[in-house]
Amino acid sequence: MRNGANAHFEWPHNLERLSYHGRMKLPEAFHGHPVCLVIWIITFGFCVVPEFVRSQKLRAGHGAQKSDKGSELVVILAANFALLAGFVSAVVFPGFSIASDWKPIFEAGIVIWLSGTIFRWYSIRTLGRFFTYDVAVSNDQPVVEQGPYRWLRHPSYLGSLLAIIGYGMTLTNWLTIFLPALCLGAAYAYRIHVEEQALLQGLGPLYHEYMKRTWRLIPFVF
After folding, report:
1. Is residue 147 within 8 Å of residue 118, measured between CB atoms?
2. What are the helix (H) ranges across 68-134?
3. d(CA 9, CA 183)
4. Model pTM?
5. What pLDDT, on the 0 to 100 scale, is given for residue 37?
6. How far apart are CA 216 and CA 9, in angstroms?
7. How far apart are alpha carbons 1 and 178 in whole angstroms?
């Protein structure tokens, strides 16, 4: 640091290397591409805002057996952190930006973001009134095997993960493609453990048999 008018800040060597250029920069779609920016804002509103509304409405009833163990809060914090960390990473670390041929990645990200969100909504609709943001089992709850639940036990979470990957792709930065998905994936790993323990306790052998013929998130993988 020099004194006087010529004073300037020099990045430490390791941080300068991490950020490559040592300066912040908006993602490509936000910089001189108004059509892409408008598409991104509309997609964000379409995918994210309804999630906040649903989280206030879809709650377990008074007669349900509640066994959340803080998993709802963990997922909410992770989802918000994933959105924030993704955008901040894109701005703070432009050295990881996909500068060349970014537009096809942006467009694919929009499609995946929307597809994941719609698949999540479809999964929620299929489960009907038995879908709640807090982990709980209703007294009259059956083992639902319609739609995606025929193969997957937690398809709505798969939809969320696809959506957050698509979100990261729209920021056209290698960090944002992976970091938000890792944050949300870790939260869902805990949530799935809590939820399946509650369902085993509440639904008994029927759910245990259902677990044997289905996958958690990804067919033939997990």
Report:
1. no
2. 71-92, 102-127
3. 32
4. 0.83
5. 93
6. 50
7. 36
